[in-house]
Amino acid sequence: MLNRLNQLTRHFARPLYRPTAPLSAPSLSSRLSLPAMTSAAHAKPIHTAACLIIGDEVLGGKTIDTNSPFLAKFCFSLGIQLKRVEVVPDDEEDIMEAVRRMSERYDFVVTSGGIGPTHDDITYSSIAKAFNLNLKLHQPAFERMKKLSRPHPMQPNFDWETPSPGLTAKLRMVELPFDEKIPAEHQAVFVADDMWVPIAIVNGNVHILPGVPRLFEKLLENLKPSLIPRLSDPEGKGTFRFMFSTPLPESAVAPYLTELAAKVEPKGIKVGSYPRWGKKRNTVTLVGSDLALMESLVKEVEEGVQGQRVSKEDELDPAEPDQVYSQ
């Protein structure tokens, strides 16, 4: 797995450098103007999201998925409701079923993994098949790949213009699902000038990203400006989480929280309760986008749980050794 991760990192990012000559492809600013990113297939408002993690290595315990937690925080900060996270193997049928279902049910779908140069990197082909599309060489991505990446030192005779197994492997990463009915610029976008890898967009809402965490994170962060105009809250205020530390067990606060939830959840405020095993204090949360309403509830919640609003869960933890208490 480590060798595979290193290989993908080399292909996507490690060899990156700034060429002295300008890129033959248009610059980021000219290619990714806001109107282009928010028109046609990108016009649908975003309320909900889903994440599909693709890879045998995650299911086999060889690597830990950090991309879905990053996406969860990313969505939370923008006020997008991440409704589902799934992990599937490098299996065509599993990928096809999951991506079709997610695309139908959620506004913003992100996939992670399976877009490298090897035989088991089947994400592009599987998603293309899921929506009855063909794969097509994305020429701008190929040109950027040639400009921004260098062949591996162990491939001294590699040539971009000479057919070879190595070139065929690299081309797998720029052969993207293509819908003849949609303008090409709406099917793959470049969000960073120093990266050749595009974000392929299928069926208007499926965004295909690499699984290498630092590449996944950078691409997602750079995609943010194009997402903000499509949010329920276009100012990008996001979602807020208030935490309350209480010395009471969950069973003691349950009646009050039930009443509170019935009152505020219809107004978009979710109430949560989280035991902290082995600690003397538990945590109650309010999550929502109406900051004024949440602020107005602080005193009531503090009284209801006999606790105090905190900025971090362990803020009021006593210094003495912890004991396990009944919840």
Molecular structure report:
With 327 residues, the chain is an alpha/beta fold. It has two domains: 2-230, 3-Layer(aba) Sandwich (Molybdenum Cofactor Biosythetic Enzyme, Chain A), CATH 3.40.980; 240-310, 2-Layer Sandwich (Alpha-Beta Plaits). The chain is built from twelve helices and twelve strands. The strands form three sheets. A six-stranded mixed beta sheet has the order 2-1-3-8-7-6, with helices on both faces. The chain has a four-stranded antiparallel beta sheet with strand order 10-11-9-12. α6 (92-105) crosses α7 (123-130). It is elongated. It starts with a helix and ends in a 17-residue tail after the last strand. Mean pLDDT is 86; it is low at 1-42.
The H/E string reads HHHEHHEHEHEHHEEEEHEHEEHE
Basic shape: elongated
The main sheet comes to: 6 strands, mixed
List the domain count as a whole number: 2
Strand order of the largest sheet: 2-1-3-8-7-6
Radius of gyration: 23 Å
- Give the CATH topology of the largest domain: Molybdenum Cofactor Biosythetic Enzyme, Chain A
CATH architecture of the largest domain: 3-Layer(aba) Sandwich
Low-confidence stretches: 1-42
Strands, count: 12
CATH class of the largest domain: Alpha Beta
Pfam families: FLAD1_M (PF24102), MoCF_biosynth (PF00994)
Organism: Penicillium malachiteum
InterPro entries: FLAD1_M, MoaB/Mog-like_dom_sf, MoaB/Mog_dom
Region (Disordered): 303-327
